[in-house]
Write a structure and sequence with these properties.
454 residues; alpha/beta; Rossmann fold; five-stranded parallel sheet; four-stranded antiparallel sheet; 14 helices; globular
């Protein structure tokens, strides 16, 4: 079993409200079957990421991960998505349907950030970054269809930031069979980082639900020993992985898990599950649920006069939760995440994020946009390390060379380290909780140490 380490650094955090998921069919090959190497790669000036805290000329702030040199373009090699002028990336995302209005913000943010890099830094490796996005309709079959289009017709270099555990479940094995980089997946299923030996081309983006759950178990046993615990979880990977993580992190000698209650995403009411947890004597309830069901659980408990300590997956750690349930009712709710909050407008990195979104056609800043720019920054950093070997294998080598990379959008004590045996991009962060001000307005506030998963 992997070990949990706690670094006693205090931080502040961001929250990404992201989706529930289904897993993939196991299938992949480590061979880069269709990789085409550069005929005679010409060494170029590789863009160098700006270390956190490095001063920049007044009036020209440089986000962590932005290359300080655009790099000199080498002759275009016979590599898909690489020309003398462009590096073409692809993404499948939810652009329509129930989730489209929310999740379309992710590629819009990333395209705005790449436009900023292109116009102010000359792109990367002397080339402009192009992101082509296709609608996956939150459907695995459609996600696979549009991914094939991106590869076969658009000839993209890599898939970046694919959105959704359910849609990406069909795409992950396909990309690994093809030897195509599948980077920074916006999906928290354990499958997207857990098996780099089986899926060597896939790297997870958002925090893994199982890792997050292990932090909750650890937090409870360290801070609330003797309390009885219940888990309400969705019957998808959000819930399956979250429950597995809680069980891994909870010390059974300190806390008893007295109730496990599952619900289906299509359910109308979960009152019976709440009654079952109450009757089991639970004093702590962990919610691996989406905001609507999280709000319903807390409201049902309140009507019963039952007020356990609630913890909820980071899929809830966004101000949008307060649209489902009053801040006063969720005051003290605990969650987890890894990056800065969008309302920290006095923070230089957040202030610059607002400026980039405003000047380069991005959406209104929020938790989604902060996360999306963060992943785009990591992508730029990886590309900047690939200038002298602009191949798919070269890109994966660059990604796996990231060690203690720190974007200014990340909290203190939270870094990105990847390797051939570690494909979790975000695997550390502190807890956060809901606080309510004198005007009854809710907000998220970080507290405690930074938890790390190794």
């Amino acid at each position: 079993m992997q070990h949990l380490l706690v670094a006693c650094k205090h931080g502040s955090l961001l929250a990404v409200l992201l989706l529930a998921c289904l897993l993939t069919i196991p299938l992949a090959s480590a061979c880069g079957g269709e990789e085409e190497e550069a005929a005679t790669p010409t060494p170029t000036a590789t863009g160098v990421g700006t270390p956190a805290g490095t001063p920049t000329p007044a009036g020209t702030p440089t986000p962590a991960g932005t290359p300080t040199s655009a790099g000199t373009p080498s002759p275009a090699a016979a590599v898909p998505g690489i020309t003398d002028k462009e590096i073409i990336l692809g993404q499948h995302a939810m652009l329509s349907g129930t989730f489209g209005a929310v999740y379309a913000i992710l590629p819009q943010t990333q395209q705005a950030y790449f436009k900023y890099i292109n116009e102010t830094k000359g792109g990367v490796c002397g080339r402009q970054i192009v992101l082509k996005v296709e609608d996956n309709g939150n459907d695995p079959a459609r996600a696979l269809e549009v991914t094939r289009k991106l590869l076969d017709q658009d000839k993209v270099f890599a898939i970046f930031g694919a959105v959704g555990d359910l849609p990406h479940s069909s795409v992950q094995p396909y990309l690994n069979e093809k030897g195509v980089p599948d980077l920074f997946v916006t999906g928290g299923a354990h499958a997207y980082g857990a098996e780099p030996e089986k899926y060597p081309w896939t790297v997870g983006g958002i925090p893994d639900y199982r890792i997050e759950g292990s932090f909750y178990g650890r937090y409870i046993s360290e801070n609330l020993p003797g309390k009885k615990v219940a888990v309400l979880y969705e019957n998808q990977y959000l819930g399956w992985d979250g429950l597995a993580g809680v069980k891994a992190g909870l010390d059974p000698e300190k806390n008893e898990l007295v109730s496990e209650q599952v619900y289906d995403a299509a359910a109308i009411d979960i009152r019976s599950q709440i009654i079952n947890m109450k009757d089991a004597g639970a004093e702590i309830v962990i919610l691996y649920s989406t905001p609507g069901f999280t709000a319903q659980a807390i409201k049902h408990a309140d009507r019963m006069g039952w007020h356990p300590q609630f913890l909820a997956s980071y899929t809830n750690s966004d101000p949008i939760l307060f649209q489902f349930v009053s801040p006063k009712l969720v005051e003290g709710l605990i969650s987890f995440n890894a990056f800065k909050l969008p309302d920290w407008t006095d923070d230089p990195a957040i202030a610059q994020h607002y400026e980039i979104m405003r000047n380069y056609g991005g959406p209104t800043p929020g938790v989604f946009t902060v996360y999306a720019q963060l992943t785009a920054e990591v992508m730029v950093e990886a590309l900047s390390r690939t200038c002298d070997n602009l191949t798919r294998r070269g890109l994966m080598d660059a990604v796996e060379s990231l060690k203690d990379y720190h974007s200014d959008l990340l909290l203190d004590g939270v870094n990105v380290t990847l390797s051939k045996t570690d494909h979790y991009t975000l695997q550390s962060g502190p807890m956060e909780r809901v606080v309510v001000d004198e005007n009854g307005k809710g907000r998220w506030e970080y507290f405690g140490p930074v938890y790390s998963f190794e």
